[in-house]
């Protein structure tokens, strides 16, 4: 489950709530008519979502929350309405969304919602303690809330809006570095005008430590045992049970097999939850895409960067099409309740555009003199502390370090390369320093000049979103690099954030014709021509190695030939009739063309089967079935999505 530092999770009632009466019991054959519970009839807006004994109530009526998660910032704005209507038609009465936060440039008045994983300038402070009442962190949280809450408070239920609940924090019981922190967050929300039902969410081990008085505790589908519900009962007595994260999948990392749950087990568990009158939130109903550099990373045994797709085994595919599981759950919900009679729209047609030849390129080395003046420093400086972006540092992308050496020998990082550094002697590729490789041999060949430029191109592959190490997630060179046990000195440091401004205006127009396959790092240019009505498509990069794709200045995300992801979703709204500029930044060895397909290929599936919500037994197996996917874009504004639900 992907966590946020201070995550606002709003449960947003759709235009028809699913009223499930207390008589539902264990009989799934009795369908419940709830068609009267519509905005037209819901006039008593003074009584929102409440806890009454073992039930939730809405407007005073028993209310079973049947929610699905959609991250609006992973979905093109043009498709928000489509995804919400499909969620409603499936039978869900509530949608859960997350409001990502990132105070990108503190010296500017504008507030940016950029991604849910980057911490950027917060980590400029060497003493930073994230998710605590450390002054540097609470100052940032207060600024965030000061700008966010006034924008969403008018959309609360009592004001005629769709927001019926807000989650205070996520899985803080597993982090729990500051006993005062949760109470601080609660007070910070309430005093700014959040007065809907507040919730916390933890797994079985963290329920008690993550709990707040007078805040309803919900549970995640992790380590669920009967003792979990006993703990829940011990801290809040008789209360409704909300499975806040009933997960369809887990995150996929580069170089791994895909993960998914068995659909039959999902159906069995949801039926059981209905019988027990549990509320649930299906994570994800629609996943979307980690466009740009927002994929983040996980820490299992080792650091694992996440793929670009956020398909997540959801009920809608990455590009918004129905899955067989969608149909199954729609049938289940309709057997229990009256769901809106919405016709199922046909799948959006996908285009297979003609392959684009990347006829022009420019080497990274060729453009250095056109970039902003490099930062000069005796010692390496990490991204976050780089004096760029008006002093707020660099958040993501790449960073290039140059220094001069006079000899070859053993180059050692001692763990100071975060996350992946390509090492070059002049323009010759030497090797990789990363989380698993800490040293390389720098050759000294006869006839070489006495002074050579050593270059280290470091990629920020994504920051950890949870765990005790989030305070350490500084990127680039985070300490000294040693040659023959002596620390290297006197660096020139180039910021390569690769934001839209850089692609549209900062990249010099010094393209050269491609006459043969080239070694990176380099930018490659191709032109995609489409008709008057651009359609969704998927990019396929056969023979390319590793890098980033940009379309009309927008960052589609990373690609890497180690898989599992093989195609990359390009939404139609990102295209324009006529010519579309595609730029590929290739780190290693380029292909010669960019291909397009109407099918997504996200890799070989690793099936993850959870046997029961009452125990912790897990059966693992794998197969070669592929599931199609595709998807989205990043929005900086949450209100239009929330308003669309009202």
UniProtKB/TrEMBL annotation:
<keyword id="KW-0378">Hydrolase</keyword>
<dbReference type="InterPro" id="IPR017853">
    <property type="entry name" value="GH"/>
</dbReference>
<dbReference type="InterPro" id="IPR031330">
    <property type="entry name" value="Gly_Hdrlase_35_cat"/>
</dbReference>
<dbReference type="Pfam" id="PF21467">
    <property type="entry name" value="BetaGal_gal-bd"/>
</dbReference>
<dbReference type="GO" id="GO:0005975">
    <property type="term" value="P:carbohydrate metabolic process"/>
</dbReference>
<dbReference type="InterPro" id="IPR001944">
    <property type="entry name" value="Glycoside_Hdrlase_35"/>
</dbReference>
<protein>
    <recommendedName>
        <fullName>Beta-galactosidase</fullName>
        <ecNumber>3.2.1.23</ecNumber>
    </recommendedName>
</protein>
<feature type="signal peptide">
    <location>
        <begin position="1"/>
        <end position="17"/>
    </location>
</feature>
<dbReference type="InterPro" id="IPR019801">
    <property type="entry name" value="Glyco_hydro_35_CS"/>
</dbReference>
<keyword id="KW-0732">Signal</keyword>
<dbReference type="Pfam" id="PF21317">
    <property type="entry name" value="BetaGal_ABD_1"/>
</dbReference>
<comment type="similarity">
    <text>Belongs to the glycosyl hydrolase 35 family.</text>
</comment>
<dbReference type="InterPro" id="IPR026283">
    <property type="entry name" value="B-gal_1-like"/>
</dbReference>
<keyword id="KW-0326">Glycosidase</keyword>
<feature type="domain" description="Glycoside hydrolase 35 catalytic">
    <location>
        <begin position="121"/>
        <end position="334"/>
    </location>
</feature>
<feature type="domain" description="Glycoside hydrolase 35 catalytic">
    <location>
        <begin position="56"/>
        <end position="119"/>
    </location>
</feature>
<dbReference type="InterPro" id="IPR008979">
    <property type="entry name" value="Galactose-bd-like_sf"/>
</dbReference>
<dbReference type="GO" id="GO:0004565">
    <property type="term" value="F:beta-galactosidase activity"/>
</dbReference>
<feature type="domain" description="Beta-galactosidase galactose-binding">
    <location>
        <begin position="521"/>
        <end position="580"/>
    </location>
</feature>
<dbReference type="InterPro" id="IPR048913">
    <property type="entry name" value="BetaGal_gal-bd"/>
</dbReference>
<dbReference type="Pfam" id="PF01301">
    <property type="entry name" value="Glyco_hydro_35"/>
</dbReference>
<feature type="domain" description="Beta-galactosidase 1-like first all-beta">
    <location>
        <begin position="393"/>
        <end position="497"/>
    </location>
</feature>
<dbReference type="InterPro" id="IPR048912">
    <property type="entry name" value="BetaGal1-like_ABD1"/>
</dbReference>
């Amino acid at each position: 489950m992907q966590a946020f530092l201070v995550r606002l999770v709003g449960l947003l009632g759709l235009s028809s709530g699913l009223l499930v009466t207390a008589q539902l019991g264990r009989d799934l054959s009795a369908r419940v008519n709830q068609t009267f519970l519509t905005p037209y009839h819901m006039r008593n807006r003074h009584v929102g979502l409440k806890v009454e004994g073992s039930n939730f109530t809405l407007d005073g009526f028993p209310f079973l929350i049947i929610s699905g998660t959609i991250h609006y910032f992973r979905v093109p704005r043009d498709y928000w309405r489509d995804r919400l209507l499909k969620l409603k038609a499936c039978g869900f009465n509530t949608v859960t969304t997350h409001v990502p936060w990132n105070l990108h440039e503190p010296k500017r008045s504008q507030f940016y919602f950029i991604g849910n994983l980057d911490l950027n300038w917060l980590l400029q402070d060497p003493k930073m303690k994230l998710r605590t009442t450390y002054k540097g962190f609470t100052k940032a949280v207060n600024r965030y809330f000061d700008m966010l809450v006034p924008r969403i408070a008018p959309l609360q239920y009592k004001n005629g809006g769709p927001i019926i609940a807000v989650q205070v924090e996520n899985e803080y019981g597993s982090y729990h570095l500051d006993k005062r922190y949760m109470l601080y967050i609660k007070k910070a929300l309430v005093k700014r005008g959040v007065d809907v039902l507040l919730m916390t969410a933890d797994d079985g081990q963290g329920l008690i430590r993550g709990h707040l008085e007078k805040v309803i505790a919900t549970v995640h589908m992790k380590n669920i045992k009967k003792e979990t519900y006993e703990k829940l009962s011990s801290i809040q007595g008789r209360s409704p049970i909300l499975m806040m994260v009933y997960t369809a999948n887990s995150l996929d990392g580069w170089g791994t097999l895909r993960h998914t749950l068995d659909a039959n087990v999902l159906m069995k568990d949801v039926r059981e939850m209905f019988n027990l009158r549990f509320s649930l939130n299906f994570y994800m109903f629609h996943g979307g895409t980690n466009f740009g550099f927002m994929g983040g990373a996980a820490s299992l045994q080792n650091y694992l960067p996440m793929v670009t797709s956020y398909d997540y085994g959801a009920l809608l595919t990455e590009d918004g099409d129905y899955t067989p599981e969608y149909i199954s759950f729609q049938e289940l919900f309709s057997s229990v309740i009256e769901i809106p009679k919405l016709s199922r729209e046909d799948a959006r047609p996908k285009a297979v555009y003609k392959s684009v030849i990347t006829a022009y390129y420019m080497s990274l080395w060729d453009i250095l003199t056109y970039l902003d003046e490099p930062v000069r420093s005796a010692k390496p400086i990490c991204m976050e502390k780089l004096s760029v972006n008006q002093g707020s540092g660099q958040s993501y992308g790449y960073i290039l370090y140059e220094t001069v050496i006079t000899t070859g020998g053993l180059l050692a990082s001692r763990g100071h390369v975060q996350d992946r550094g390509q090492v070059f002697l002049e323009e010759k590729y030497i090797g990789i320093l990363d989380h698993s490789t800490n040293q390389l041999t720098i050759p000294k060949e006869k006839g070489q000049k006495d002074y050579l430029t050593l270059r280290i191109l470091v990629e920020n592959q994504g920051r950890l979103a949870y765990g005790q190490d989030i305070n350490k997630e500084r990127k680039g060179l985070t300490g000294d690099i040693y040659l023959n046990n002596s620390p290297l000195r006197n660096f020139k440091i180039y910021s390569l954030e690769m934001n839209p401004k850089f692609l549209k205006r900062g990249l010099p127009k010094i393209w050269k014709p491609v006459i043969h396959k080239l070694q990176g790092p380099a930018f490659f240019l191709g032109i995609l021509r489409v008709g008057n009505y651009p359609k969704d498509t998927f990019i396929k990069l056969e023979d390319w190695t590793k890098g980033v794709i940009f379309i009309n200045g927008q960052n589609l995300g990373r690609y890497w030939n180690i898989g599992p992801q093989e195609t990359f979703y390009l939404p139609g709204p990102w295209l324009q009739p006529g010519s579309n500029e595609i730029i590929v930044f290739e780190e290693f060895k380029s292909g010669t063309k960019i291909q397009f397909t109407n099918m997504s290929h996200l890799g070989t599936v690793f099936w993850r089967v959870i046997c029961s919500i009452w125990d912790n037994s897990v059966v693992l197996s794998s197969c070669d079935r592929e599931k199609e996917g595709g998807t989205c874009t990043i929005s900086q504004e949450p209100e239009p999505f929330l308003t669309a639900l009202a």
